[in-house]
Amino acid sequence: MIVAKDVKQLDKALSVARSKNKTIGLVPTMGALHQGHLSLMEQAKKTCDIVVVSIFVNPTQFGPGEDFESYPRQLEVDSRLASEAGCDVLFCPTEEIMYPDGPTQLIHVRQGADVLCGKSRPGHFDGVATVVLKLLSLVGPHKAFFGQKDAQQLAIIKQLTKEFFLPVSIIGCPTIREEDGLAKSSRNVNLTPEERAFAPMLYKTLQNAANSGERQIKKLVNMVENELSLLPVGRLIM
Fold first, then answer.
1. Is pLDDT at 131 greater than 90 in this prediction?
2. Residue 108 annotated to the active site
3. May I ask the CATH class of domain 2-173?
């Protein structure tokens, strides 16, 4: 596995693959790799000649008071995991590489970012769209792989590539879960023992609604609200 820390090293690592028209797959991450990330690499390995994994904790997608400083960073461990998963090129740039003049220009997502997660995180998807556009431009992949766990992000990125006529296929891959149903996430380590115990109820409640046979939206929403309101942790925002 080749480790590239700047654009010049990345271009050098990919130059031979590009000259031979090899199929390049990109798996963008913020590190703290888990089985969900590894499943994306596995899928990329199956369908592409060269797998590029990026690790970059992107500051522009964090809002004031969010966990940018405390976001888990474990590059040595991540490098080993990526290599074992079949990564060919690991791109781990610094903030200075990705934003050489600071974040002077950002993509503004005008549609689809003001609901769900984006409703409580204004500007988050502007940062996501900006860094993904940068990574796609730098790597030039034929395919890029994202988890369906972040469904809103996946939809926005698909629209981004459509709007900017980017020659890349965005591949959504199934969510990988713990045995109790909780989606694997780098941020799960931030949960208290009590929060971790009740977190799987989110997925279970949605499954109950999906399997209830009810198809009227208002009744389904009420069903989910009623179940979640019984949880002793968290705050329900609808």
1. yes
2. no
3. alpha beta
Q: What is the mean pLDDT of the chain?
A: 94
Question: How many residues would you count in the chain?
Answer: 238
Query: How remote is the C-alpha of 213 from its chain's centroid?
Result: 32
pTM score, whole prediction: 0.91
> Which entry of 34, 37, 124, 142 is annotated as an active-site residue?
37
pLDDT, mean of residues 127-152: 97
Q: What is the pLDDT of residue 237?
A: 61
Average pLDDT of the residues in 107-123:
91
170: Cα within 13 Å, side-chain hemisphere: 20
CA-CA-CA-CA torsion for 148, 153, 156, 158, nearest 10 degrees?
A: -40
Residues in CB range of 131: below 8 A, 6 or more apart: 28, 56, 58, 60, 61, 98
How far is it, in rounded angstroms, from Cα 48 to Cα 28? Answer: 15
User: Averaged over 164-186, what is the pLDDT?
Assistant: 95
CA distances from 167 to 24, 109, 139 (A): 12, 20, 12
User: Domain boundaries in the chain?
Assistant: 2-173, 191-228
Quick one: which of 80, 91, 67 has its CA closest to 4?
A: 91
